[in-house]
Amino acid sequence: MTALTESQPFSATAALERVGALARSASRHPAIDNPFYRLWMSRELPVEQVELIARNYYERVSRTSVRIALAFIHMEDVTARAETVENLSDEMGRGDASAVHAVLLRSFFEALLSRLHRRKVDFDEIDAPILPSTRRLVEEGERVFSSPHPQEVCGALLAQEWHAYPQLVSLYEGVRNYRGYFGFEEFHENCEYFYLHIGATEKEHKLHSLSTAARTCRSEADIEHLERGFTTYLDLLADNWTEIHTHLTAGCNGAEPAPG
Questions:
Q1: At CB < 8 A and 24+ separation, what contacts does 255-258 make?
Q2: With 92 labelled, which of 4, 63, 220, 225 sits at a CA distance of 20 to 30 A?
Q3: Per-residue pLDDT tens for 235-260?
Q4: SS3 of 201, please?
Q5: Which pTM value belongs to this model?
Q6: What are the percentages of helix, strand and coil residues in the chain, rounded to 5?
Q7: How many whole angstroms separate alpha carbon 221 and alpha carbon 167?
């Protein structure tokens, strides 16, 4: 990262172009292009490994609303705040506690683990460890979403929303390996968390995060703050998936299939 340059004003169109290019670069980052997704999509994993994934992924998702709320607090532009509130409302089920995204995810994991264990499982029973990288992602993620620089906050939000769609697609494709544990329609009834995100909701959040970030950037210095928040959050996500993958492949049961 180069030192912050002197402010050099540029247009709203130029800002949107720069922010759009940054957002699209997420697809090449290991937060999205990583071996965990390939393993998860390749086949059904042992129940102990599913519990590890569930415990750590839920730990992150349960704090999503906090990160969005922190972003709102640390933004200054009124339109950006309005867009961010809409994002938060979606995350919180638009006022319906049963539709809060973290609640839907918890219910999905309880249903899946109940089928794998062949008995009713409460999420609080899962004794898989919360990994160090998961704790760092939560703690340092909330720190970057609390930056005194609105551009850095918007960069982190941009990273969260532009990694979320491909992440959820990859996770859902892996979930399909377990559809045999459910009735045909029952499987889809339990996948509401995934369908919400790979439908219109996450696409809209991507667009909002783009326009929100562009509004805060009118100079190279602003862009550099934005890039810092964007890269910091993506790196935290990548580190987390790397550590989860390392744990899954540590034993022979978790080893990835040999090529060919």
A1: 256/35, 256/38, 256/39, 256/42, 257/42, 257/43
A2: 225
A3: 999 999 999 999 999 864 434 443 33
A4: helix
A5: 0.89
A6: 75, 0, 25
A7: 30
